[in-house]
């Protein structure tokens, strides 16, 4: 029997990738690792424990734990980032450009980080700055991640 299935989803592209990866006949761990590269800072921003769980999950190269993988990601996305976890993720992202950044940019990163720590500013302000830095220094890996989308 030849069956067509149509799905209607809210987050079109993200769900389409999930569906493809979850329904392939023989899934490959490298596909989950590639997907992880897009989500990892979103997860880290919300939960260090879930971040570590996913890293552990992907260590077994002979397995294809697609359902567990997406359940963990969705559990993380459902969490509201704390200032500490958001700053931790932002510091990791900053690591992609900190050696190239000017002294003025380093000072601005420090200032924004301290403002978030003292709750004088929201993480979104720091993320806007980080996105500008990723664009300026051509950090395509980070620009392709979902970190700046959430």
UniProtKB/TrEMBL annotation:
<dbReference type="InterPro" id="IPR013560">
    <property type="entry name" value="DUF1722"/>
</dbReference>
<feature type="domain" description="DUF1722">
    <location>
        <begin position="40"/>
        <end position="149"/>
    </location>
</feature>
<dbReference type="Pfam" id="PF08349">
    <property type="entry name" value="DUF1722"/>
</dbReference>
<protein>
    <submittedName>
        <fullName>DUF1722 domain-containing protein</fullName>
    </submittedName>
</protein>
